[in-house]
Specification:
By secondary structure, the chain is an alpha+beta fold. Helices cover 35% and strands 14% of the residues. It contains two helices and four strands, in the order αββαββ.
């Protein structure tokens, strides 16, 4: 093979284009992996937050199982008694059961609670909500026992942007 002269040394246009193409493929694959890792990390953080709030809510609801109605202290419709309801204006931020104000926290049915989820999660773009559903009936005269306690299902819903 004959040697190239000094004027002919260097890369051809085809070699430069191929080198740029290979470089761009490698760079885009690295950015793609980094972006995927960042997005999946955010989803895992939101799942972890939902799990923590779920456990917190379950723990709060356990306190209501010990309710004693012997003195008529359980709130009912229009009684204004707030002792055993989920509403807590003193909390920071205030906790409210928006589906059932001043009612017993373990009343059968669906309950939507605000004030427990962090603001970054409850607001846009995730718009997370915390709901719990109480199945079964509450004994006429608590304290409740394992056989008279209602079944509670806590869910956290949100939208992924």
């Amino acid at each position: 093979m004959p040697e190239r002269s000094r004027a002919e040394s260097g890369y051809t246009l085809v070699e430069v284009v191929i080198a740029m193409l290979l470089t761009s493929i490698m760079v885009s694959s690295v950015f793609s992996v980094a972006l995927t890792a960042k997005q999946s990390g955010g989803k895992a953080e939101r799942r972890l937050m939902a799990t923590q709030v779920n456990r917190q809510m379950t723990g709060m609801l356990r306190n209501f199982v010990t309710a004693d109605n012997s003195a008529g202290s359980l709130p009912g419709p229009n009684t204004g008694v707030n002792r055993w309801s989920m509403d807590n204006a003193a909390a920071t931020p205030p906790i409210n059961d928006t589906s059932c104000l001043n009612c017993y926290a373990l009343d059968p049915g669906s309950h939507t609670v605000t004030g427990i989820l962090p603001s970054w999660f409850a607001g846009p773009p995730f718009n997370a909500t915390l709901e719990y559903y109480v199945a079964g009936t509450v004994a006429a005269n608590p304290p409740l026992t394992a056989t008279t306690s209602p079944s509670v299902n806590v869910t956290v819903n949100w939208t992924e942007p």
